[in-house]
Amino acid sequence: MATVFLANRCFTQSKNGFNPESALLPVGHILSGGPGKNSVTAIDKPAFVSTDKAYPINILNWHEIVNDQFNGKPVVITFCPLCGSGMTFLSYINGKALTFGVPELLYNSDVLQYDRQILSLWSH
Predict the structure, then answer these.
(1) Gap between the Cα atoms of 101 and 113, Å rounded
(2) Tell me, what's a Pfam family for it (predicted)?
(3) Domain spans of the chain?
């Protein structure tokens, strides 16, 4: 999983509701990517219409994040419409499952995501 670079212990409105005080990256390089946190909704528990799992690009363009499971293990599928890249990560730390949302923030023209449990930003 990507490295956490912004812990949000104090919920502020500095960057779409995330506190940039403890960022490991230059805060000036974290830019708004849209109207606000969760204006693009992640998909939780996706339903599939065939027996093969697939995440169509036209759906990922709108939602950017899918929280799913493979073989009982939590995963997050992320897609950046700006650069056309997709990634999949196991989404648990120390045995705790995390789910992710869309903060509408960018770093180096690439989407960021946030975990809903700790409210930390993660790099795609």
Answers:
(1) 6
(2) DUF3179
(3) 4-46+56-123
